[in-house]
C-alpha cells in the first residue's frame, strides 16, 4: 500500500498549489479566494522510487459549527484519519495566526506523524521569519515554495522516510 499524506492548513496558505506540484497536475483548484477547495481531493505522486497518495483539503477551522466551513472541517478530519502522515501547511508571508495554533492543537491529539511546512518561502531557506513557527510545537519548520518548487523534495524525503 502506498502511504497516504494529508495536506492540512487554513485557507490560502498554498495547499492546492503543493498538491498540484506533488501530483504534477492542475487538478486541485488554486485560487486567490480563501477556501475554494471544499472537499477532499486525492492524487498520486512519486519522489524517487517511493509512490504515495496525497489528499488536498479545504481550509480548516477546527471549531466551526455551521455550513460549508463545518463540512470542510469534517472532510479535513476524515483526511487526517485516513492519512499515514500529515503535512501542516502555514504561510510565512502572513505569519503565525491564532488559526494555525488551533489547527496545531487539533493535530496534536490526532496522534499522526506531522510535518510543519512553511510555504511561500521562496528564497528564504535561512530567514529568521521561520523562527516564529517553532512556537507551534510541531518541531522544525520545513521551508518550501510550492509555486517555485523549492524545498519540496527535502520535505517529502522526511515525510516518506519510514516507508
Ligand atoms: P489553499 O487555499 O491552501 O489551497 O491555497 P492555494 O494553493 O489555492 O493558494 C493560495 C494563493 O497562494 C494562490 O494565489 C497561490 O498562487 C499562492 N501561492 C501558493 N504557493 C505559493 C508560494 O510558494 N509562494 C507564493 N508567493 N505564493 C504561493
Ligand atoms: Mg485549496
UniProtKB/TrEMBL annotation:
Residues 3-163 form the EngA-type G domain. GTP 1 binds at residues 9-16, 56-60, 119-122. Signal peptide: none annotated. GTPase that plays an essential role in the late steps of ribosome biogenesis. Associates with the 50S ribosomal subunit. Belongs to the TRAFAC class TrmE-Era-EngA-EngB-Septin-like GTPase superfamily. EngA (Der) GTPase family. This is GTPase Der. It comes from Roseateles oligotrophus. The lineage of its organism: Bacteria, Pseudomonadati, Pseudomonadota, Betaproteobacteria, Burkholderiales. The gene is der. The chain holds residues 1 to 163 of 446 of the full protein.
Amino acid at each position: 500500500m502506498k502511504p497516504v499524506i494529508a495536506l492540512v492548513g487554513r485557507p490560502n496558505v498554498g495547499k492546492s498549489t503543493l498538491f498540484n506540484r506533488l501530483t504534477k497536475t492542475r487538478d486541485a483548484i488554486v485560487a486567490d479566494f480563501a477556501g475554494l477547495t471544499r472537499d477532499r481531493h486525492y492524487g498520486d505522486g512519486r519522489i524517487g522510487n517511493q509512490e504515495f497518495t496525497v489528499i488536498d483539503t479545504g481550509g480548516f477551522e477546527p471549531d466551526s459549527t455551521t455550513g460549508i466551513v463545518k463540512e470542510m472541517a469534517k472532510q479535513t478530519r476524515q483526511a487526517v484519519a485516513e492519512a499515514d502522515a500529515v503535512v501542516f501547511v502555514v504561510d510565512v508571508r502572513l505569519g503565525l495566526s491564532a488559526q494555525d495554533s488551533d489547527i496545531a492543537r487539533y493535530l496534536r491529539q490526532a496522534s499522526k506523524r506531522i510535518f510543519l511546512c512553511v510555504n511561500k518561502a521562496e528564497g528564504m531557506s535561512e530567514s529568521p521569519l521561520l523562527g516564529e513557527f517553532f512556537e507551534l510545537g510541531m518541531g522544525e519548520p520545513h521551508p518550501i515554495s510550492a509555486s517555485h518548487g523549492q524545498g519540496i523534495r527535502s520535505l517529502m524525503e522526511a515525510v516518506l522516510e519510514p516507508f
